[in-house]
Specification:
Helix content is 46%, strand content 14%. It is of the alpha/beta class. The chain has two domains: 7-179 and 218-242, 3-Layer(aba) Sandwich (Rossmann fold); 180-216, no CATH class. α2 links the parallel β2 and β3 (53-55). The longest helix has 29 residues, at 95-123. It starts with 6 loop residues before the first strand and ends in a 7-residue tail after the last strand. The structure holds nicotinamide-adenine-dinucleotide (NAD). Residues 12-18, 35-38, 58-60, 81-84, 104-105, 131, 133, 176, 178-179, 181-184 line the site of nicotinamide-adenine-dinucleotide. Nicotinamide-adenine-dinucleotide binds next to α1, α4 and α6.
Length: 251
């Protein structure tokens, strides 16, 4: 198990992609710190399953990010994955949703990275993986805050990859297309409203419209890619933005 002795913090890992990444890293022996919201009993079950700890900090604020990093302790692998979405036309976009999306999808990663990097530099080894999105490379209408945050995390990741290039620490993005998780399911009603469509039309004509494979990405596929990026053999993979989107952004 190539991650034995390494501590991995996965933000937003009580659900969806983050949970799949936590499972993949736990399977390779990493000591997992989970983060995210959810039912206390379900989270306790996950902690048992993965021999993990859970820190329930709210990453919308600087204080929450600092609390997470203090309670997690030094981490060797940092997965910035917590994220949220809101779908609305820009002239009707709620200002509080804009601020929250930028805070969680982008600014939280700045805080966790700045607090994680000193230990990684000291150990001469680290892996930073940011869950971006196909929307870090291309845009869709009605997702102004999300697209801005995801293009932002791509630029942030490239910058830290350059800064850390000679320290043994790599930084990469993983950019999924549509993955069937609560985040995708929850945006269907708003998209139906914004576009005047039925549920099936939103799934086929919006969500999978640009996906050549016509399949949702599976969370476990993202976990496997994250685990690869944590291998020694991936030591020269840095500053990259890995698409896992069924060919969407190849078009
Ligand atoms: P999800 O809704 O299933 O999970 C989100 C996780 O973030 C949960 O654990 C939740 O509790 C946590 N979270 C939410 N708000 C938080 C906060 N304020 N503080 C701490 N944790 C918080 O979502 P998902 O689909 O697994 O998405 C995970 C990441 O993947 C996001 O960054 C998302 O933008 C990205 N992504 C998802 C898809 C997709 O199709 N699902 C595609 C591309 C990128």
């Amino acid at each position: 198990m190539f991650l034995s002795g390494k501590r991995a913090l996965v933000t937003g890992s009580t659900s969806g992609i983050g949970l799949a990444v936590a499972r993949a890293l736990a399977a390779e022996g990493a000591d997992i710190v989970l983060n995210g919201f959810g039912d206390a009993a379900e989270i306790a079950t996950l902690c048992d399953e993965l021999s993990a700890r859970h820190v329930g900090a709210d990453l919308l604020s600087q204080e929450g990010c600092e609390q997470l990093m203090a309670e997690a302790g030094p981490v060797d692998i940092l997965i910035n994955n917590a994220g949220m979405q809101h779908v609305a036309p820009v002239d009707d976009f709620p200002v509080d949703r804009w601020n929250a999306i930028i805070a969680l999808n982008l600014t939280a990663a700045f805080h966790t990275v700045r607090l994680a990097v000193p230990h990684m530099k000291e150990r001469g080894w680290g892996r930073i993986i940011n869950t971006a999105s196909a929307h870090s490379k291309t845009a869709s209408p009605f997702k102004s805050a999300y697209n801005a945050s995801k293009h932002g995390i791509d630029g942030f990741t490239k910058t830290i990859a350059l800064e850390l290039a000679q320290t043994g620490v790599t930084a990469n993005c993983i950019s999924p297309g549509y993955v069937w998780t609560p985040l995708v399911e929850n945006q269907i009603p708003d998209t139906m409203k914004a576009r005047g469509m039925t549920r099936d039309e939103v799934i086929n004509d919006v969500l999978l419209a640009k996906t050549p494979t016509k399949k949702f990405v599976q969370p476990a596929e993202i976990g496997a890619l994250a685990a690869f990026l944590c291998r020694e053999e991936a030591g020269n993979v840095t500053g990259a933005n890995w698409s896992i989107d069924g060919g969407w952004t190849a078009q």
